[in-house]
């Protein structure tokens, strides 16, 4: 196999629940990775990310858990998951988690 391209995926409809208020947090998930032998199948990825909608967790832990699960599932050379969260109280947040050596 020759050069493996970098893959970029975006999921603009991400939601989870704030563990304190119980209200939905929304964000855009950006995934970048260089595949090894496996790739992420887009429909399965969409379904996995949509499953967070009714789960309570902190933003930082969500980003890290998504990165860990995807890294273990497809065993890429490297993977980065970034979530741009919708502002709360006038504050924008961006959380990033990386696996492997880019």
Keywords:
GTP Cyclohydrolase I, domain 2, 102 residues, four-stranded antiparallel β-sheet, 2 helices, alpha+beta
Question: What this model shows, in words?
Answer:
The chain has 102 residues and is α+β, with helices and mostly antiparallel strands. It is 25% helix and 42% strand. It has helices spanning 42-50, 59-74; strands spanning 7-17, 24-34, 78-88, 91-100. Strand 3 and strand 4 (91-100) form a beta hairpin. The model has no long low-confidence stretch (mean pLDDT 94).
What's the short version?
The chain has helices spanning 42-50, 59-74; strands at residues 7-17, 24-34, 78-88, 91-100. It has 102 residues and is α+β, with helices and mostly antiparallel strands.
Taking pLDDT < 50 over at least 5 consecutive residues as the criterion, the unreliable ranges are none
Largest sheet: 4 strands, antiparallel
Q: In the CATH hierarchy, what is the class?
A: Alpha Beta
Give the strand line-up of the largest sheet.
Answer: 1-2-3-4
Order of helices and strands: EEHHEE
Cα-atom radius of gyration: 14 Å
N- to C-terminal separation?
19 Å
CATH superfamily: GTP cyclohydrolase I, C-terminal domain/NADPH-dependent 7-cyano-7-deazaguanine reductase, N-terminal domain
Using the 3D structure, state the CATH architecture.
2-Layer Sandwich
Query: What class would the helix/strand composition place it in?
Result: alpha+beta
The figure for the number of domains is 1
| CATH fold group | GTP Cyclohydrolase I, domain 2
Mean pLDDT: 94
Work out the helix count. Answer: 2
Task: Give the proportion of residues in helices.
Answer: 10-25%
Number of strands: 4
What sort of overall outline do the alpha carbons produce when their principal axes are compared?
elongated
């Amino acid at each position: 196999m020759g050069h493996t391209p970098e893959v970029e995926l975006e999921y603009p409809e991400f939601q989870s629940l704030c563990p304190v208020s119980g209200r939905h947090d929304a964000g855009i998930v950006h995934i970048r990775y260089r595949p090894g032998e496996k790739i992420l199948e887009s429909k399965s990825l969409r379904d996995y990310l949509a499953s967070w909608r009714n789960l309570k967790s902190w933003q930082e832990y969500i980003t890290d858990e998504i990165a860990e699960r995807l890294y273990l599932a497809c065993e890429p050379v490297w993977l980065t998951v970034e979530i741009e969260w919708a502002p709360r109280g006038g504050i924008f947040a961006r959380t990033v988690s990386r696996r492997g050596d880019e």
